[in-house]
């Protein structure tokens, strides 16, 4: 798939980064509410990244549950003007770099690792059918054609007892199948229905946590200089894998119960204030 380069800037290359910054995209980096103050905060963050990543040796990327197609749709819709050094999309099952030399180039090492896992659509379909026999019904989310290693479903909440039992059963079954599942509260601000959990099936050894470890290894950046930002339950593992993991100020109530380091400000303003504090 080709992605248009017109009217969007690329960050300068950082051959030997000192810091790696990971941030969730939807409702962390990008606010879906069309407010002028949020737009201005994002412009200020983009300006900081454009001016400071080379000087301060920052390798910057988005780690998102959205597909790359969806990310670019939002870039165009919301008028973003800057791409990061990398995008780990589809819940970290795709890893793609953006610079003058390798625009939209996939990381072949990461892709080859995923192809060896045995993950398949048929395997996920069988798991979903088996769960249905236990009266656990999962509703398919719209699937994107360029996401072969991510299958998304919704679980509609009933009550705490039934929901906890269902989540436990899903996790047990997935573990036996040799793949992974990410379950977190769905966020209506990102377009999800109310009172649902996102249930995301992915290959073993992938996801946001594993992207962090892989990127740190590939860049040879110290754990002490790893920074991450998120706002929901599916960001918690990523935040707890880095040295400096922050929820932005608009984080969900679910996330706040699981992680206690929270930026004072929301969205891009929260990211920028933390970066200015940590990176001198």
Automatic annotation (TrEMBL):
Matches recorded under InterPro entries: HAD-like_sf (IPR036412), HAD-SF_hydro_IIB (IPR006379), HAD_sf (IPR023214), SPP-like_dom (IPR006380)
GO cellular component: cytosol
Coiled coil: none
Keywords, ordered alphabetically: Hydrolase
GO MF annotation list: magnesium ion binding; phosphatase activity
Pfam (any one): S6PP
Matches recorded under Gene3D superfamilies: HAD superfamily/HAD-like (3.40.50.1000), yhjk (haloacid dehalogenase-like hydrolase protein) domain (3.30.70.1410)
Residue ranges of every copy of the Sucrose phosphatase-like domain listed in the record: 18-275
PANTHER family hit by this protein: KANOSAMINE-6-PHOSPHATE PHOSPHATASE (PTHR10000:SF57), PHOSPHOSERINE PHOSPHATASE (PTHR10000)
Protein name: Sucrose phosphatase
Organism: Dolichospermum compactum NIES-806
Source organism phylogeny: Bacteria, Bacillati, Cyanobacteriota, Cyanophyceae, Nostocales
